[in-house]
Amino acid sequence: MKLRHAGLGLLAIVVFGAAGFTAYAWESEIAPVERAASERFEPALVKQGADLAAVGNCVVCHTAPGGKPFAGGLPLPTPFGTIYATNITPDPETGIGRWSEAAFTRSMRVGVDREGRHLYPAFPYDHFTLVSDADNRALYAYLMTREPVVAEPLPNELPFPLNVRLVLAGWKLLFFREGTFEADPAKDDVWNRGAYLAEGLGHCSACHSPRNLLGAEKRGDDHLAGGESEGWTAYALNAASPAPIPWDVDSLTHYLHQGWEARHGIARGPMAPVNANLGTLPEAESRAIATYIVSLMGEPSPERRQRAETLTAEATIHPPGAVVPSAGSQTVPVAHDSADRGAAIYAAACSTCHDAGRPLPYGGLRLDHSTAISGPTPANPINVVLNGIPAPEGERGPIMPGYAGALDDGQIADLLAYMRRTYSDKPPWDDPADLIAEARARGAENGQRSLDTGSAAPANPSKREPTW
Ligand code: HEC
Ligand code: HEC
Ligand code: HEC
């Protein structure tokens, strides 16, 4: 809560600043148009727009749980209050049916609505500003051909003065850089495609970068240095990547496109819909993003590479259908000290699946391969242990039971300490008591994200980044 107050204090300064340039901050209205008939748009353009919308995760934020796609209403909690995603179906009254393409492109480029009001950066226009005119045209064609839904936008729950949109002009002046994407001529087309998608529509750093007190992403060396999203840690994707087995282009392509990777595990929480959406596109798009991200990670140090080689050599991955040894015959070290509750819980509850060598995605990862155990906070293993990993509806998929009922907070803390000590080369985590309590309070909600890699619209898209 301290953070919130500091943020508000600073924001007050911005408010006064904002008052000074009201004239500057004013944006004009773009005249309403008659809603364009669906037939006006070429099917090929609409399809291109569908693919781009998948990269941009538009449906994830703009759909309320159980609501119609793109009709808005999803609450986005921020440290400053709750902002509701709006209705972006072509309904003329409650959606964007009367927006011209120019109005739509302006909203993506500078975060201003058709009537000229500043939009909250919970809408990641600080990234979408990089989207080309041609791609905005395709996105517009896609949205204008969706089913119009009558759904009044919900009023945001923000304290004064944050509820005054003019304040956003101050925020933008400080933190927002309008810009089109500049390709790096020193890099090839695949790298540049990846940079365009990752930094623009894909807005990876909205979750994977740390933010300042005013909710703006930190830049420079902090770019993609790891962030937070809905109670999950979004690991560093730059040279600080904590992955025990360094990512390469092939493994990262597989992870982004399939939602899991043999030596890195499956994507959970707010990352799962990102991968589910990327999985609907040609694999080349995931490969482009992977090429760009791996270049930012750089060459792993010789020590890190050596450790990864040792880990890989130790791991036995059994081919599908092989007879898998039961727990107990494993080489993974398990402390037998009876005083060590964490080791005992692990041996009894976890080892059967995580040390059995069953191939992913159905088997559990060896935890010395897991970024979750080597990450900067225990937030992700806490979420996974409490809520488990539910199988996707109607499909075969990875299953891990949740232990919220079976383990109390102290037992989970012991288990975490044991896993960190045994399966990573990192120093112990800070006391996880608060994180465990918070994760319990969020309840099963966060863990219940389905691994729906087959559809562009996750059935219950309730996760999104806490932007702004
Ligand atoms: C991280 C969540 C998030 C994602 C992802 C997202 N939006 Fe939004 N969007 C919002 C929120 C929240 C608002 C409302 C902002 C406000 O009220 O100031 C918004 C507003 C908009 C608006 C302005 C609508 C209006 O009624 O004023 C448009 C247009 C829009 N989004 C289009 C898109 C498109 C296209 C995509 C995908 C390329 C997308 N959004 C992805 C959260 C998101
Ligand atoms: C809505 C927030 C969000 C967005 C947007 C997002 N991520 Fe993630 N990402 C996460 C979270 C949270 C995790 C941790 C998930 C887990 O533990 O399974 C994660 C995990 C990952 C991992 C696994 C890292 C590791 O070492 O195990 C990679 C790689 C990754 N994201 C890449 C990307 C890329 C590339 C993009 C943009 C195309 C992206 N992410 C966009 C939230 C996000
Ligand atoms: C019925 C089998 C099963 C049991 C029992 C089980 N898990 Fe899992 N676990 C899985 C599967 C499957 C996954 C998803 C694949 C993956 O990412 O490892 C998973 C994922 C995980 C992950 C994320 C690994 C990563 O980075 O991808 C952690 C951490 C984890 N489990 C910890 C535990 C702990 C701790 C216990 C015991 C309290 C436990 N598991 C019990 C099957 C199981």
UniProtKB/TrEMBL annotation:
GO terms for cellular component: plasma membrane. Heme c 3 binds at C350, C353, H354. GO terms for molecular function: electron transfer activity; heme binding; iron ion binding; oxidoreductase activity, acting on CH-OH group of donors. Residues 44-147, 189-297, 337-423 form the Cytochrome c domain. Its main location: membrane. Residues 427-468 are annotated as: Disordered. Binds 3 heme c groups covalently per subunit. It comes from the Bacteria. Keywords: Cell membrane, Heme, Iron, Membrane, Metal-binding, Repeat, Signal. InterPro entries: Cyt_c-like_dom, Cyt_c-like_dom_sf, Cytochrome_c-type_DH, Membr-bd_ADH_cyt_c. Heme c 1 binds at C58, C61, H62. Its cofactor is heme c. PANTHER family: ALCOHOL DEHYDROGENASE CYTOCHROME C SUBUNIT, BLL4482 PROTEIN-RELATED. This is Mono/diheme cytochrome c family protein. It comes from Aureimonas phyllosphaerae.
